[in-house]
C-alpha cells in the first residue's frame, strides 16, 4: 500500500523495525511497550497528515489510512485497542510540537584540577587575596584561641640554607720558654726506656772494642748518662704519682656514691637544718624554744631575743605579785586585766621562713596542698597563669625538716596549674597542667617520671586544668566503704572523672553550658533579641564538693556564675548563683557551717553565700585587685584568708565585716597568688609570683568558738 500527496510524491510511512520471521518475540517487555507506543504515534501521525489535506481528497486519504491501519500487519508489535480508539481533537492536531536535540552529559574518567593560576586570568586577584588571608592567619596563630595543638600529617617544606654571622674571633699571641731537652722528652717519652736499656747493653761491647779512649770522651759519656738517668727517674716518678692520683679519685668517687655515705649526709643535713631553724620551727609548732646553757655570745639573735622576752615576762610576773600583795587585789581581777591588755595588742603576721630555691625562683606558685597523712609534707605547683609567659613547670614536695631544698622535684613539660594528694594512696600526687594533661607521680620514688599520663587519652582536656581533687564518695548499698575518685575542671568547659587503670582515661561528669544573663526589663522597653553565643560551653575555673554530702558540688565559671550541681541528677544545674562580674577563681564551703560558702573573683570582690539563697549575703571588697584565692580557717567558722595581687588578708566576721583584721602587703613587683592554712598550728602559707612560699605565724588572733555559727 502506498500513499501519495497532491504533487504525486510517495509519502508512505516506512516501519522503523523490520521483524525477523525466524525470531520469537516475547509478549511483554520493553520492546512491547515501545512497539505499542510506536503504533499509537503512527496513528497520530497519519491522522495529523490527513487533516492537512484538501477537502476533495479527505475521503480517499481517510479510506487509505483506515486501510493502512487494518491491512498493514506488524508481526511483532501489538497495538493496544484503547489507544487506537482514542480520538484527537482539532486543537490537539493544530498544536505545534517542538523537538530538541541535546548533548548527553560529559563523563569524566580523570579530573586533576590545577593548583597554579595564571597572573592574567580572571581569578588571579581572588587567589592572591585568599593567599594573603591565609598568611595573616598563620602569622596571628600564636596566642589565638581558634587553634588547638594537635598532631597531623603535613607536607614537608623545601629545605633552605641559612647563614648566621657569629662574633668576631679574637686571636692572641702567647709564648713560653722551652729547652731542647723538654721538647725531646715530650715527644719521645715512649722511646726513652727501651733506648736506655739498649744503651746499657751496648756499653760493655763499646769498652772492649775501643779500650783506648780520650779523657774528654769519657767525661762526655758520663754527663749524658747522668742526664738520661735523671730524666727516666722523673718520668717514673710522674707516672707513679699519676697512678696514685687516679686511684685516689676512683676511691673518693666510690665513697661519695655509696649508699651509706649518702645516708650519713642526709642525717647531717637534717641536724644542721634543726640547728639553724630550731627557734622558728618551735614557733611554728607552738613549742617552747630550747636554749643551750653553754651558748656563746655568737648565738643567733632569735634565741637571745626569746631569752630576753622570757626574762622580762618573769620579772613582770614577779612585780605583779608583789604589787598584788601590797594592794590586796583580787587575783581574778588581775587576770582579767591582763587579758584585756592582751586584747589591746593588734593581731599580726610574723614571717618565719620561706620555701624557695634556685629551681623555683622565677616560677609563679599556682597551687599548694598538704599531704593527707603527713602534716609536715607540702606539695607546691609552679606555673604561669598567662598564655604568653608559659614555660616548663615544676611540682615540688617540701618538708618542714628542710626548708631550703625540696625533698622531691618533678619536672613537667608545661606549667603546673593544680595538684592534690590522694587519701586512699597517700604516696600518689595528681598534677594538672596548662596544656590540659593530667599526670600522677609517686612521691616515694626518687624517679621523676610519671606513673600515669593522659597524653594517650583520646578524651583529654583541650584547655588548662584549673583545679584537681581526689574526692571520697560512698559506694552505696552494693559496696562497703568509700570510693575515691579523681575529679578535674578545665577551661574547655568540662568536669571530668579520671579512671586509673593501666593507663589514664576519663569520662565527663558534666559539660558546663553557657547561660544568658538575667537583665531586668525597664517599663516600656521592648524585648531584646538574644545574642548569639560563640561557644555553647563556658570555661570552668574551680569547684568544691560539699563537706558532708559529696554528691553535691559547686562549679565556678569564667562568666562569673556559680552552679550547684549533682552527680546523680540528670539536670545540668540545680541552682545558679549570680553575683560576680568576672571569672570566679575559687569557691570554698565552710567546714563548720556547711550551708555557707565563699567565692572570690577577678571583679575585686569576695562574696559570702547561703546555699538556699541565690542572693549574696555579704560582699567584701578591700582593694582594687584580683582576688586569686580564698580559704576558710580549719579552727573557726568566722575566720578566712584571702590573697589578692597586692596583699594577703585575714578576715574575722565576728569582729568586722567591713575591714580585714590583718593585712600584709606584698613586696614591689610581687603578686600574691595562693593561700593555705596549716593543719595543726596557727600559721598561714602564702605563695607569690616569684616562686616563694612564705610561712607566717598568726599572732594575737583569738579564734572564736568553732562550733558557733
Automatic annotation (TrEMBL):
<dbReference type="GO" id="GO:0045504">
    <property type="term" value="F:dynein heavy chain binding"/>
</dbReference>
<dbReference type="Pfam" id="PF00400">
    <property type="entry name" value="WD40"/>
</dbReference>
<dbReference type="GO" id="GO:0003341">
    <property type="term" value="P:cilium movement"/>
</dbReference>
<keyword id="KW-0853">WD repeat</keyword>
<feature type="region of interest" description="Disordered">
    <location>
        <begin position="306"/>
        <end position="325"/>
    </location>
</feature>
<dbReference type="InterPro" id="IPR050687">
    <property type="entry name" value="Dynein_IC"/>
</dbReference>
<dbReference type="InterPro" id="IPR001680">
    <property type="entry name" value="WD40_rpt"/>
</dbReference>
<feature type="compositionally biased region" description="Polar residues">
    <location>
        <begin position="219"/>
        <end position="229"/>
    </location>
</feature>
<keyword id="KW-0677">Repeat</keyword>
<keyword id="KW-0966">Cell projection</keyword>
<feature type="region of interest" description="Disordered">
    <location>
        <begin position="193"/>
        <end position="229"/>
    </location>
</feature>
<dbReference type="GO" id="GO:0120293">
    <property type="term" value="C:dynein axonemal particle"/>
</dbReference>
<dbReference type="GO" id="GO:0045503">
    <property type="term" value="F:dynein light chain binding"/>
</dbReference>
<keyword id="KW-0963">Cytoplasm</keyword>
<feature type="repeat" description="WD">
    <location>
        <begin position="577"/>
        <end position="619"/>
    </location>
</feature>
<feature type="repeat" description="WD">
    <location>
        <begin position="620"/>
        <end position="654"/>
    </location>
</feature>
<feature type="compositionally biased region" description="Basic and acidic residues">
    <location>
        <begin position="307"/>
        <end position="325"/>
    </location>
</feature>
<keyword id="KW-0969">Cilium</keyword>
<protein>
    <recommendedName>
        <fullName>Dynein axonemal intermediate chain 4</fullName>
    </recommendedName>
</protein>
<keyword id="KW-0282">Flagellum</keyword>
<dbReference type="InterPro" id="IPR036322">
    <property type="entry name" value="WD40_repeat_dom_sf"/>
</dbReference>
<keyword id="KW-0206">Cytoskeleton</keyword>
<dbReference type="InterPro" id="IPR015943">
    <property type="entry name" value="WD40/YVTN_repeat-like_dom_sf"/>
</dbReference>
<dbReference type="GO" id="GO:0005858">
    <property type="term" value="C:axonemal dynein complex"/>
</dbReference>
